[in-house]
UniProtKB/TrEMBL annotation:
Gene Ontology MF terms: oxidoreductase activity
Swiss-Prot/TrEMBL keywords: NAD, Oxidoreductase
Family: Belongs to the NAD(P)-dependent epimerase/dehydratase family.
InterPro entries: Epimerase_deHydtase (IPR001509), NAD(P)-bd_dom_sf (IPR036291)
Pfam family, one: Epimerase
Superkingdom of origin: Bacteria
Keyword Lipid biosynthesis attached: no
Protein name, as recorded: UDP-glucose 4-epimerase
Domain NAD-dependent epimerase/dehydratase: 4-163
Native organism taxonomy: Bacteria, Pseudomonadati, Pseudomonadota, Alphaproteobacteria, Rhodobacterales
SUPFAM superfamilies xrefs: NAD(P)-binding Rossmann-fold domains
Length: 277
């Protein structure tokens, strides 16, 4: 490919993707509202940009064949705070990608688009939206917009419902929800290099023995995860615990995001859960 654009390039996940994406194109243009990373790949160019500014994003997109959109606030927050980066920012990325003649947007969606679905029900990629937060609602908005841009304008999209992506699984919930950094790279590379995707939703999850979701419907992506959170089970489950069937944080895919008040940080709730075991 001649040019890939990566948004959110300075974020926790975007920074993992910069080097692998640089290998897939003649030029990688990385962008973030933050300042440039200390070092860039030989074929990487960085542009500091605000995703809510359509003209700004259009300039970044010129000549792009593929857009990997990971720029957003990655947590629950008041709706007014999410409106710009997560809602309007998603629109400007899709609109600018369309105007630039890009072929596809690979989007960092989230399990929180369906976070109030029950974990033990078993879900493929056709499970309907059931957001657990304003943050999850922003992912529903972007997924629906991606489908509309495909059906009305022919711009492909692969929406990755990422569960919990960390270098190692952090808590008992991660035994089913973990996405390793290595599998994140494999998933994004597959989403970029698959010849035809149309509009596709895929789960961002590793090959966990306890995974409650399935990518069987989208095997054409060629995503083959290699890591399994079960390798950490002895550390994460030192003593058996009785489940509380009345607790949505245990019962729902969104975990603690399913119970935090709207507008309050879900990441903080997960951190507290991790610290207390």
């Amino acid at each position: 490919m001649k040019k890939i654009v990566l948004t959110g390039a300075c974020g926790a996940l975007g920074s993992v993707l910069r080097a692998p994406l640089a290998k897939l194109a003649e030029e990688l243009v990385s962008t973030d509202i933050a300042q440039a990373p200390a070092e860039l790949m030989p074929n990487e160019r960085f542009v500091q940009a605000d995703l809510t500014d359509l003209a700004n994003v259009e300039a970044v997109m010129q000549g792009a064949e593929m857009v990997v959109h990971f720029g957003a606030i990655p947590d629950e927050a008041p709706f007014e705070e999410l409106l710009g980066p997560n809602f309007i920012g998603a629109y400007t990325v899709w609109e600018a990608a369309h105007r630039a003649g890009a072929r596809r947007v690979v989007y960092a969606s989230s399990v929180h688009a369906v976070g109030l679905q029950e974990t033990m029900s078993g879900h493929d990629t056709e499970v309907p939206h059931r957001p657990d937060t304003f943050y999850g609602l922003s992912k529903c908005f972007a997924e629906d917009m991606g489908r509309m841009f495909w059906e009305k304008r022919g711009l492909e999209a692969v929406c990755l419902r990422i569960m919990s992506c960390t270098p190692e699984p952090q808590n008992a919930r991660a035994l089913y929800s973990w996405l390793s950094h290595g599998d994140l790279v494999r998933l994004v590379e597959a989403s970029v290099t698959t010849p035809v995707t149309g509009f596709t939703i895929a789960w961002g999850v590793s090959a966990n023995s306890r995974a409650p979701v399935s990518n069987a419907r989208v095997s054409f992506l060629g995503y083959h995860p290699r890591d399994n959170a079960e390798d950490w089970a002895d550390r994460l489950l030192p003593t058996p615990k009785s489940p509380d069937p009345s607790d949505p944080a245990q019962r729902c895919l969104g975990g603690p995001f399913a119970v935090v008040p709207l507008g309050e940080s879900g990441v903080a709730a997960i951190r507290r859960m991790t610290e207390t075991g």
